[in-house]
Amino acid sequence: MSSADAFELVGVDAGPADDPILHGLDLEIPANGVTVLAGPSGAGKSTLLRLLNRLDDPAAGEVRWRDRALTDWDPTDLRRCVAMVFQRPPIFPGTVRDNFAVALPDVTDERAVHVLEHVGLSGELVGQDASTLSGGEAQRMCVARALLTDPAVLLADEPTAALDRSARETVEDLGRALADSGVAVVWVSHDTDQLRRLADHVVVLADGSVRATGHLADLDASPDPLVRRSVGASA
């Protein structure tokens, strides 16, 4: 992705008008690699993530991507380019293939099998009732569903928080592989060990504002103790 593909937030307020969660946010999110959004609970990480594919719009300011304001994008077109996976994977009634059809109505069996195998699942799952998948399988199925539209960006809101260690590592490996293949990944995490495994770039939020941004080595040396705690820097 070129630099023009970066997200840019200018003067963004978001959340309830009488009590905004984000305040006057100015930020550029890199157009490649894994960017981890970190910081205390309630800092605005998930709120920021939701702005990036118009699940919410800012109360003030502007969010831009590919040099266009997100409000100029049709939400459906935008979400095909900027996909999102959640902490609790939304499962629709029916088979895995039925779930894929929610994202891509004309999905073929060949395409469904290919995308399952791409996320490390057996293609034989395509006809299985989606409700019978394990937590890790369901999360990877949702990543596969998001990938059906060949997005340029994948947003991940604590996608491993409800998973056991093995499934968590599998999803982390998938996120890393996607970033290495050219898909920009923006990942919310409270887990500093995970952050240190994944992050190419970190944005630390606190009290609805950007506290720090940069590479781990820079933030490890920050004079701000909240920043160091947020990235799991050694004392």
Features:
single chain, 235 residues, alpha/beta, Rossmann fold, six-stranded mixed beta sheet, four-stranded antiparallel beta sheet, 9 helices, 10 strands, 34% helix
SSE ordering: EEEHEEHEHHHEHEHEEHH
**Major sheet details:** 6 strands, mixed
Structural class: alpha/beta
**The named CATH superfamily:** P-loop containing nucleotide triphosphate hydrolases
Contiguous low-pLDDT stretches (5 residues minimum) are: none
Task: Write structural notes for this entry.
- The chain has 235 residues and is α/β, with parallel strands linked by helices.
- It has one domain: P-loop containing nucleotide triphosphate hydrolases (Rossmann fold).
- 34% of the residues lie in helices and 23% in strands.
- The chain is built from nine helices and ten strands.
- It has helices at 45-51, 75-81, 96-103, 109-118, 135-147, 165-180, 192-198, 216-220, 225-230; strands at 7-14, 22-29, 34-38, 60-65, 68-69, 82-85, 153-157, 184-188, 201-206, 209-214.
- The strands form two sheets. Strands 6-7-8-3-9-10 form a six-stranded mixed β-sheet, sandwiched between helices. A four-stranded antiparallel β-sheet has the order 2-1-4-5.
- Strand 4 (60-65) and strand 5 (68-69) form a beta hairpin.
- Helix 3 (96-103) packs parallel to helix 5 (135-147) and helix 5 (135-147) runs parallel beside helix 6 (165-180).
- The protein is globular, with a radius of gyration of 18 Å.
